[in-house]
Amino acid sequence: MDTEMQDKTISPIHVVGGGLAGSEAAWQIAQSGVPVILHEMRGVRGTDAHKGDTLAELVCSNSFRSDDATANAVGVIHAEMRLAGSLIMACADKHQVPAGGALAVDRDGFSEAVTKALESHPLVTIVREEVNGLPPKEWGNTIIATGPLTSPDLAAAIQAETGEDALAFFDAIAPIVHRDSINMDICWYQSRYDKVGPGGTGKDYINCPLDEQQYNAFIDALIAGDTVGFKEWEGTPYFDGCLPIEIMAERGRQTLRHGPMKPMGLTNAHNPTVKAYAVVQL
């Protein structure tokens, strides 16, 4: 049966939400020869975190975490997705930026590539509209993949249907540090363990060392400092995989030093014989 005839005999599957999950779901459905209607409200109604209306827009980190299939489960998932013809992984690979052993991407190039691929697929129809309730029965098979930024009406409908009181988690904001504010007479370029990742050189991060006194002063200031208050839509549980730095510090003075600020796998290029007490890696 050719594609044209198949389109007329197979009912489309609806996908609500054009983020990472929804975009991948729509792609896999279409690649299987089944028509799909992808509903995305951005372009008609924005969210409190997205900046544009492209599909699969990243609103937190631009990193997909480790890309090493021999090191951890995340890398294995990446490898499995590539074998399955993943659109997300294909666009990520095409728009990767150096990030040591991690797979990080150019945000704009990545989301634009996902959008272009889905817009040009003959079996994908993108509808820019807000779905403000549970899908009607006449839609048939439907995937809801709206994530933590689901519109209030749809979120309320899902909560009423499932009885769940928490449908999302809180993700920390990634800060921006200006390059000209960093003293490279103290800091140095190096990926942890000199790991050369996708498109990298083994020197893909800037490392800012702290001695014990500086680290303790940092922790004191962090705990005592002002914090950004929650917006109404952010009243969701913390996700332990991406905690705000002040929450980690409150859990114990050494938490950061044995977590994201650990000096393991790093050698100070300016003083190789002295191990930093802690490191801020940018």
Written description of the protein model:
- With 282 residues, the protein is of the alpha/beta class.
- Helix content is 29%, strand content 13%.
- It is built from 8 helices and 10 strands.
- The chain has helices at 3-9, 20-31, 73-83, 87-94, 107-120, 152-162, 212-224, 245-250; strands spanning 13-16, 36-40, 63-66, 96-97, 102-105, 124-128, 142-144, 188-189, 206-210, 278-281.
- Strands 6-2-1-7 form a 4-stranded parallel β-sheet, covered by helices on one side.
- Helix 4 crosses helix 5.
- The radius of gyration is 22 Å and the shape is globular.
- The chain starts with a helix and ends with a strand.
- The model has no long low-confidence stretch (mean pLDDT 88).
Mean pLDDT figure: 88
Tally the beta strands: 10
Low-pLDDT ranges: none
Helical percent range? 25-40%
**SSE topology string:** HEHEEHHEEHEEHEEHHE
| Largest sheet composition | 4 strands, parallel
Q: Report, as a whole number of angstroms, the end-to-end distance.
A: 53 Å
- The geometry reads as globular
With helices defined by DSSP (H or I, 4 residues minimum), what is the helix count? 8
- Estimated share of beta-strand residues: 5-15%
Structural class: alpha/beta
Radius of gyration: 22 Å
Oligomer: single chain
- Strand order across the biggest sheet? 6-2-1-7
Secondary structure elements and their pairing?
Layout: H1 3-9, E1 13-16, H2 20-31, E2 36-40, E3 63-66, H3 73-83, H4 87-94, E4 96-97, E5 102-105, H5 107-120, E6 124-128, E7 142-144, H6 152-162, E8 188-189, E9 206-210, H7 212-224, H8 245-250, E10 278-281
Parallel strand pairs: 1-2, 1-7, 2-6
Antiparallel strand pairs: 3-5, 4-5, 8-9, 9-10
